[in-house]
Specification:
- Helix content is 61%, strand content 9%.
- The chain has 29 helices and 12 strands.
- The strands form 4 sheets. A 4-stranded antiparallel sheet has the order 2-5-1-6, sandwiched between helices. Strands 9-10-8-11 form a 4-stranded antiparallel sheet, with helices on both faces. A two-stranded antiparallel ribbon has the order 3-4.
- Helix 12 crosses helix 25.
């Protein structure tokens, strides 16, 4: 009696929107208003650290470093002369003027260029520290001597390959800023102010090209990628999906009903993200497109069933009830497994992928909710004409089923061979998480950065926080001896173009306080003398200049900056590991240190996420298999459902490895993400096959029935999914585009696997298991659906 009561309750809930469409629409609008209100708090993140968890080791190392030496949010303005030399009076005057004006950019704390770089000179027993531009004058107020300035600048080890190129044609102004890390607009404000400032000086009129990069430009590029995808990909994907729906359904009102259903799900899922305090970032910006594709692909089974029943002569109300009763179980099953697949992204190490999984999982569940409440009401109320009978697709599917049955043995043999051959391409896959290459050349950040790497310096910057074992270790000659040895070792490493530490400042001070003799270009061997030099230097620095970005206030630690040019992910990791081993081996009692920096963090991004996602994918496999086993009431079918869905991932990655080779962080999420998607078609096929077998049909007839029932909606939903992910693949942000392209490939291959491999597998392995199972339902008719007449 209890079961009958529960069944009646579920029956009434399922058909509520059919019988009371206006009340159902009102309820949906209340749900949308409640969740959609969270959209007000949704913002776009511009933080490059968003890909790293705050409690992760890499993030904590960088945070410790920046607490000691100040956060290095910099904007690098680069000027390149289109002829032989930058060193002309007009160009140097321009660089000097922009250097002074740059202090007016919001949040600016320091500005460095070749004109205001410190030049140390002796003045009796004292030292004189002047800006480089003043040091190149014979007297105060005298004109600049360009040859002297060029000589001073190109002879400065701290400037070459960082603020000036060795050939003297390219220079940079480095602007450090400090703004609230949580700010979503500060990086854009800084960029806009810098662009306006440069435009006012019109450097192009002097034959100078202008480029910009740096941490601020990187943050702004991540934010711009999110905004661009929301502005372009989302509308484009919606347009593509609407056109496909109208063509495949041949009914504008039916397409509108389905599209509006998923649109409400998107609003609610993004609103929920806002209530949860999440931010849209470069990874989650694609979530509306993915939810639209997933929701439409799942719910379209109900719409096609409705149109089929409607065209067969049933009235509108009965057609909707029949479609819901016949398809809601497999649709609910597919959307739940999709949600589980995306929720496993929460095991990823990168927070943006965790958030992407949460948003899309919510979108899948909201799609199910509105598919039961909103969609039937809209189908009931909209002026949908009775469709004409369609035969072309049905004939194609029927003929396809016949050929699959006829050639089942060949397909069973050929498929494993194809999988093995394709998987060989996986050996060519290399991981590359250079964050500059996350952006394609549609982004000014990418083109500017490529020019800067070519003409000035690399952007793969590693920072080593080097500490001593005693108090005020930086004033210990033994500390400097090891520090200099570390510098020398670093300069000899592959791809390294620049190494700098505070040791260079002390070498210069010692030289100039000994009448400029080259023999004294070394670290003093007296600790008291080092302390005096440090005090003398700091007292002589101009306003706004300090050594706190080089030495900690307690004098126990200093930083070593290394710049690599054109380094791969593996080369960055290798240098960091070798450097830390060198410190542990050659200076165990004098100094210790650890490497950090954005380049180091991003070099580990994929490997960390792949490790964490392996566990998540295994959990998803177990959960999905358990759910399908319960749904099918068959352990064999539950396990069998996963077989054709593991192959597409192997084949797609193999093809990607053979054709592209390089992958980034996207590969770590695609496997788990697509598992919940591609299992959907398998569920529909097995559900209909099981239904036919329970009705007493033999295996070949059951395969025919399976294709007849779900062939057209499967083809339609797969086309929509592939089209949606192909739109995602057009993103200028590589993480998003690679995820879209890989997902589209996997879904296409999954369709082929379900149609070419699963039926022969069923014919081979099904040993009358279906016939032995008890019938699902009280009426013993062999049907698992809810009867529309109940």
């Amino acid at each position: 009696m209890t079961n009958a009561f529960v069944r009646r309750g579920l029956h009434r809930a399922l058909f509520f929107s059919v019988e009371r469409p206006w009340q159902a629409l009102g309820l949906c609008l209340l749900i949308v208003i409640g969740f959609g209100a969270g959209l007000r708090t949704l913002s776009i993140s511009a933080d490059t650290r968003a890909y790293f968890p705050p409690d992760g080791a890499l993030r904590q190392t960088l945070d410790r470093f920046e607490q000691r030496y100040a956060e290095q949010n910099n904007l690098l303005l680069v000027f390149h002369s289109n002829d032989d030399s930058l060193f002309t009076e007009e160009r140097i005057a321009l660089i000097d003027s922009i250097t002074e004006e740059a202090w007016k950019i919001p949040y600016t704390t320091r500005v460095d260029s070749i004109t205001n770089a410190t030049h140390i000179a002796a003045d009796g027993d004292m030292i004189k520290i002047d800006p480089m531009i003043d040091a190149a004058r014979t007297n105060i107020g005298a004109p600049l001597d360009m040859d002297v300035l060029r000589s001073l600048v190109l002879g400065d080890n701290l400037l070459v390959n960082r603020l000036v190129s060795p050939d003297g044609r390219t220079t940079a102004i480095n602007i450090n800023v400090q703004y609230p890390r949580a700010s979503t607009t500060a990086s854009g404000t800084v960029i806009a102010a810098a662009d306006a400032m440069v435009a006012a000086f019109a450097p192009q009129t002097l034959g100078l090209s202008v480029w910009k990069t740096g941490r601020v430009a990187t943050s702004n590029a991540f934010s711009a990628a999110s905004k661009q995808d929301l502005k372009t990909l989302t509308p484009l994907s919606y347009l593509v999906i609407v056109i496909l729906l109208m063509v495949l359904l041949r009914s504008v009102p039916a397409a509108a009903a389905l599209f509006s259903t998923i649109l409400l799900a998107i609003v609610c899922s993004l609103g929920l993200a806002g209530w949860m305090g999440l931010q849209i970032n470069s990874a989650t910006a694609s979530s509306p497109t993915i939810i639209m594709a997933l929701g439409v692909a799942a719910i379209i089974h109900v719409v096609i069933s409705f149109l089929h029943a409607f065209s067969a002569g049933d009235d509108r109300r009965m057609s909707i009830r029949r479609a819901l009763g016949d398809d809601i179980k497999p649709v609910a099953l597919t959307l739940c497994t999709t949600a589980i697949g995306f929720l496993t992204l929460n095991s990823a190490d990168a927070p943006p992928f965790q958030e992407l999984g949460t948003i899309i999982a919510a979108g899948a569940l909201f799609s199910l909710l509105f598919g039961v409440l909103w969609l039937p009401a809209m189908l009931r109320l909209l002026p949908i004409k009775r469709p004409r009978t369609r035969g072309i697709i049905d004939r194609f599917v029927r003929g396809f089923a016949q050929r699959v049955i006829r050639y089942r043995t060949a397909l069973l043999v050929a498929t494993p061979i194809l999988i093995a051959l394709s998987a060989m391409g996986m050996a060519r896959i290399t991981i590359d998480d250079n964050y500059v290459r996350y952006f394609d050349k549609r982004f000014e950040f990418r083109t500017d950065t490529d020019q800067i790497i070519t003409h000035l310096t690399g952007l793969d910057q590693l920072e080593f926080d080097v500490g001593g074992e005693r108090d005020r270790a930086v004033l210990d000659p033994a500390y400097f001896a090891k520090l200099e040895a570390f510098e020398t070792w670093l300069k000899a490493q592959p791809r390294v173009t620049y190494v700098a530490s505070v040791a260079e400042t002390f070498r210069r001070l010692n030289k100039h306080l000994h009448a400029g003799e080259e023999a004294f270009y070394r670290i003093p061997e007296n600790a008291e003398l080092l302390a005096q030099y440090l005090m003398l230097y700091e007292m002589s620095l101009p306003l706004g200049r300090t050594l706190t970005d080089q030495i900690t206030i307690d004098r126990n630690r200093s930083r070593v900056t290394v710049i690599m040019r054109g380094a791969s992910t593996r080369e960055i990791q290798a240098l960091q590991n070798r450097a830390e081993r060198w410190l542990a081996t050659h200076a165990p009692t004098a100094i210790t240190g650890e490497g950090t920096g954005l380049a180091v963090m991003f070099s580990y991004l994929s490997s960390l996420n792949i490790k964490s996602m392996i566990g998540g994918t295994l959990i998803a496999l177990i959960i999905i298999s358990a759910i399908l086993t319960l749904a099918f009431r068959s352990i064999g079918l539950g396990l069998l459902s996963l077989v054709p869905n593991l192959f597409p991932v192997l084949i797609a990655f193999g093809v990607w490895g053979a054709l592209v080779g390089r992958v980034g962080v996207a590969i770590s999420a695609v496997g788990a993400m697509t598992l919940g998607i591609i299992v959907d078609d398998t569920v529909h096929l097995l559900w209909r096959y099981r239904e036919a077998r329970l009705a007493g049909k033999d295996k070949p007839t059951a395969v025919h029935a399976m294709f007849k029932k779900v062939g057209r909606p499967m083809l339609t939903s797969s086309l929509i999914l592939i089209a949606g992910f192909c739109v995602v693949a057009t993103s200028g942000f590589h993480v998003t585009s690679a995820m879209g392209m890989l997902s589209a490939m996997i879904i296409l291959i999954a369709l082929l696997a379900d149609w070419l491999f699963l039926p022969p597998l069923l014919l081979l392995l099904d040993r009358q298991a279906m016939a032995k199972n008890h019938v699902d339902g009280p009426n013993q008719r062999g049907h698992s659906q809810l009867s529309p007449a109940e």
